[in-house]
Amino acid sequence: MRSGGHCALCHRYLLESEITFAFEKLGELAHIVAQTNSELAPRGLSELSDEDRNLAENLMLACGHCHTDIDKRLQAERLDVHWLLMVKQRHEQRIRQATALAANERTVLLRLVGHIRGASTDIGALEAVAAVNMLAERRPELSLDPNRAGAEIDLRSLPGEGNPIDSGYYETACQRISQIISERLKPAVERAEVPHLSIFGLARLPLLVFFGSRLDDTVSTEIFQRHRATESWTWDDTQDDVTFHHRVHAEGEVGATEATLVVNASGTVSLGAIPVDVKDLPTFIIEPIGAAPNRDTIRTRSARDSFHAAVSDLLGYIEAHHKSVKRLHLFAAAPVSAAIILGRSVGWGFHPSLVVYDAVDDRYRFALEVKAP
Length: 373
Ligand SMILES: [Zn+2]
Fold this sequence. Notes:
The structure is a single chain. This protein has a six-stranded mixed beta sheet with strand order 10-12-11-13-14-15, with helices on one face. Strands 3, 6, 7, 8 and 9 form a five-stranded parallel beta sheet that branches. About 35% of the residues are buried. It is built from ten helices and 15 strands. β13, α10 and β14 (about 355-360) form a beta-alpha-beta unit. Helices cover about 30% and strands about 20% of the residues. With about 375 residues, the chain is α/β, with parallel strands linked by helices. It has helices spanning about 50-55, 65-70, 75-80, 80-100, 125-135, 165, 170-190, 205-215, 300-320, 335-345, and strands spanning about 30, 60, 105-115, 115, 120, 140, 155, 195-200, 220-225, 245-250, 260-265, 285-290, 325-335, 355-360, 365-370. The structure holds zinc ion. Zinc ion binds near residues 7, 10, 63, 65 and 66.
């Protein structure tokens, strides 16, 4: 098995006839130190016990040709025990490396777990692993979590969730998110241990946006969410596709430094509920084309990616037509994946910062501002 079905000497494949191409076991177990302690046996004189002579450590998988070759009397003197052991070890090491998982087949799981409207939520590690496995694209790893269990960024112990704005909950939760990302994720990325990230989140929307803004831009990422229709974390790419676009609701004043972004991805934000002081700003809307948004509008990865593309298009539009906008006020009815995508897209570089509002008792209140870190 360690030799992977190849002759350790000439590397010929030993599980198929080279004549008929039929399955055939052509490998032979060649003794390095001969089976019998005799001057007449190839490399036979040794202190190795009879038992040890038949262990895998003293055997190498070889084709019949190579087996005969190394056991010829004169060859056995030229190709000694030391040389054969070296060849055997090198071959077995190569097979081990060649059959190991490549970096691009691994994904590291990162979960953000908080409260949603008073209810403590949970994403079990095994649930997250199962969702990644269902896609059958990458092999999940829990390496960022030293305990290999439980939540990786756990906000459930933080006080004040019931009244997040007045209690300073958002401030402490953002600190916790930043801390764990800089202590665990960032060093692992720098050590090149994170070829790919799988993100799971359950928390209030402003925290998901903030979380997205703190994720490393250089690591490719798959975002998961729990789907209402099935209560499952698995993306069902067989569902009908939804396409998102942005539209300009109001161009506002030329040279405005602030603007408003309304996201209707899992429901429809009532424009009447938006605070008066941001009402007359340039206003942009992101919404699905040709359908009213509902809780399962983003059901497939292509719908999710279409949302991402609509956000990028809008940022391009703002860059081209509203260059002076430095702050974007966000009012969103959006599922987890869309909230994280908003954070990943907007809080960076030359893009405007994102002022995130939370819906509390049917009105929107300022929750937090996402700026480039
Ligand atoms: Zn061979």
